[in-house]
Amino acid sequence: MNALRATLRGFGEICITAGLVLLLFVVWQLWWTDVTAAHAQSQQTEQLQKEWADLPPHPSPSSTATPTSPATPTKLKEIPLGDAFALIRVPRFGHGYVRPIIEGTSLDVLDRGVGHYADSAKPGAVGNFAVAGHRVTYAKPFNRIDELKVGDPVVVETADTWYVYRVVGHEVVTPDRVDVVAPVPEHPGQKPTERMMTMTACHPKFSARQRYVVFSKLEQKIAKSPGVVPDVLRG
Predict the structure, then answer these.
(1) Which of 150, 134, 204, 197 has its CA nearest to residue 172?
(2) 6-19: per-residue pLDDT in tens?
């Protein structure tokens, strides 16, 4: 009988220890990664802005986005995987919302910010500028992606240009639907003529069963200069 009690007591202690370990893991996964990632992403944002401020002035591009022939795409330099190269602002997510956009979509990249599908178009270019972000953990940049509505602005900032996209629709798809990030979203193989942006995130929250996808179209590009900010970011 004493041996049985000892066995049960030992088993109970193991269960309690396992429960505490599991609880600590959940706290780390759902809270602490948000704290550390938010701080890191804020630092990355500040670093990128500082680097841009130190650059020489760029030639002023047109303030209005107009389609160009897909035979003469915009020439943009290649971006090394893992490098931050742009910032994304979404007024629907709050006045102070800003996250770095980093080249690549591996897990280590997504843990640091919004990831850019490396084979997709660059910001403002003809084609599909496609990005992905976490909905939970690691500062969850796309946590509220399902709140975006048609007509909402999504602003991408690069070293010399503001790009203002407008949401045109959304869809929930299975993870194998890679056609949503094709040059012409959902129409792989077609030659693009428009400047699109696609945002993707896991759906529903705390699950990777599906993907929530938001499509936007470029409305305006604005040359960066002191004091110049897109109207959608004012107020």
Answers:
(1) 204
(2) 554 544 445 454 44
Closest CA relative to residue 134, chosen from 154, 152, 108: 108
Domain ranges within the chain, ordered by starting residue: 32-233
Q: Can you give the length of the chain in residues?
A: 235
Burial of 83 (0-12, 13-18, 19+ CB in 10 A): middle
Q: Is 211 a catalytic residue?
A: yes
Fold for the domain defined by 32-233: Sortase; Chain: A; (2.40.260)
Tokens encoding 203: 């759906």
The one catalytic residue among 89, 99, 134, 195: 134
Residue 134 bears catalytic tag: yes
pLDDT, averaged across the chain: 85
* Cα–Cα–Cα angle for 37, 40, 42, rounded to 5 degrees: 105
Question: pTM higher than 0.85, yes or no?
Answer: no
Higher pLDDT, 14 or 123: 123
Is residue 201 predicted with pLDDT exceeding 80? Answer: yes
